[in-house]
Amino acid sequence: MSENGMIQKVDLYQIWEQEEFRQILPFKEYIFDMLIHLDIVSEQRRYDTKTGSRLPIENFFVPCMLTQRNDTDFLKQECTPERTLSLAFVFKGTIIPPALPNRLICACLSMWTLKEYQGRKLMFSGIVGLSFDKEHDIVVCVEGHKILLYLVHKRSKGLIIPDIATSVRDCLFVTLERISEFYQSSIHCKTSSKLPFLTEYSCSKLNCFTSEKKLVSETEECLCKHGENIKNNWRIWNKKKEQKQCDANCQGLSEDALSQIPSNTELLRLSVNCETRMLHDLALHLGMEEMVWSDMVENYPTNTQMVKFLTLMHLKENDEITFTELNNGLREMEITPHTLCVVRQRKQVKSSILDDILDCIPSDEIVDRLAPLIGKIVFQLGIELGLSVEEIESIKEKWDRDLTAQNKEVLFTWRKDRTVKPTIRVLEQAFVNIGKGARCLKEVLKDVDPNTLKAVEIVTDRIRENENRIIQDIQTSQILDHMMTNLVISVDDRRRIEQHAGQDDQNKALLDIVIKMREPAYSVFVDGLRNYGYEDIANDLKCDFSPSPVSAETKGLSDWNVPLYKVRLQKNYLKVITDIQHDSIVDHLITRDVVSVDDGKKIESGKTPQEKNRTLMDMLLRKNEQGFNEFLKALQKDSIYADLADQIEKTEVTSTDMATLYKCLK
């Protein structure tokens, strides 16, 4: 918490469980609410940009924990006039109440990814840096009675996409508006229809601001004291949603933007929005040979979009063309240079997917269901999601004839990169940008529960945060015993984990399975860590949600394709491996042809009694019911194990037990 000031309620309650704080535990909810009321803890509030309604609160920000001032050179080196647009929310008082920027920063952290600069997270007292995507960064900075918003492009502010600028401005405006209303109500102020802040827009100097009131007039010019027309910047921050074409007064790309080499994503946008013949003629005009074009057409006879994109990529890689050369080529061919303006446009998404879902990272299950529906756009999708050409070509080569596998690996590769949070919203925008549309995504998500999806994300993030400690520190045998007994992994899962020679690799395999299986596997795994000596890690992994493993209430035992005897045997896994001496039992099983003599030797090769019993259980869980019955008979023959045999035989099996094990076996 000391690094970024963020905390979840469960973390604070965990602190209060210490002996020194036990007396306040009965009043924990009231005390927590009081901390919020006094602005000691700030809610990470988010608002639906379509309805303005509040979204569920997950994280909290503790401003007093974040006292370090910004000592990086990020603002100086990155927020330069050549790359940055700026506006300010100016409050009418001489100073902003601390609750407002604190809550705004919380909201920003929930909407966008905290940026790292030179190995440090850009979160300091009064300033936060965030990544919108791989080209655009956001900086929110509190100075006196102003909240400054900077939108920074990786290469040139002339390439800032107005739709992005407008959406960022709208998000912060709506959030700040709602926070202001809440703050006024909490201090019993009479709610006013007037906002407590005004919006002002900066010129390229970044320290000269003009009020919005002056800019909303119909005049085409509004000059600042430096003689700049601020109206141009204002239009970028306030693009009309229905606007698809350039403004009548659009001058095309700026000089600085024209000097840049187009990114792969910008070339993709250009190829999607240009006719095939026009791009063919432009490429030849810029020096590409007809044979190169013909080869591309021959390689992709049914995919003209691919031909157009690869044509532009050829010009970039072989001739290092800039926007200037593309612009000059279009002019010489008497084609409007506004054709290039499409690289600064983003198609509007009319989404019917809930904001709660859009802000989540797609789970493995969503990726698995989505991949077969994407079709033959793996290259375009990969480029739009920020993968390199080399990465996509490697994926296509790896899965040469398996289109679904190609799409799946593109999505997994994109999802691994957390430079920008890989949300479903980003994926939806990518589908729309490349002309696919988001219907396939909507179809996959129609039955998805936002709470379950958020739980998956929390689980994955907690494991990622503690991955190195888990991989390096834990021994898995007893934890796997615990998970087997609780039915959250199968005997095959255990074998897949233990087939790895090194403990580190076994731990990695276990984490992969826990992430894939989700609840209740995660909670059982955390309990196992706590039970077997890894309480510190268990505390760090603890999550504040109630597991709902499988909806089994509507099914009876006979509806699950899982034999009852296997459930009974596995629920007693830990008891069997710790309590029995295997020798006489194995002898009995050999005489009844349940296991072979070679199986007996394999069991005997274990180094400890527990290892030998684990091998025996591994075999029994793969046998039919006759093998199970013979095992019970072997136990019953020895008076020491008669009670254990009776316990196994009478073990209660619920629909939830069946559903949990079925989830592992399917």
Defining key terms:
8-stranded antiparallel β-sheet, single chain
Q: How would you sum up this structure, described in words?
A:
The protein has 34 helices and 13 strands. With 666 residues, it is of the alpha+beta class. A hairpin with a 2-residue loop joins strand 8 and strand 9. The longest helix has 25 residues, at 162-186. The chain is globular. The two termini are 40 Å apart. 36% of the residues are buried. The model is unreliable at 547-554 (pLDDT under 50). This is Death domain-containing protein. One of its GO terms (biological process) is regulation of apoptotic process.
- DSSP helical segment count: 34
User: How many DSSP-defined strands?
Assistant: 13
Helix share bin: 40-55%
| Alpha carbon gyration radius | 30 Å
Low-confidence stretches: 547-554
Q: What gross morphology would you assign? A: globular
Summing up helix and strand content along with how strands pair, one would put the structural category as alpha+beta
Cα end-to-end separation: 40 Å
User: What integer is the average pLDDT?
Assistant: 86
Biggest beta sheet attributes: 8 strands, antiparallel
Determine the strand fraction and express it as a percent band: 5-15%
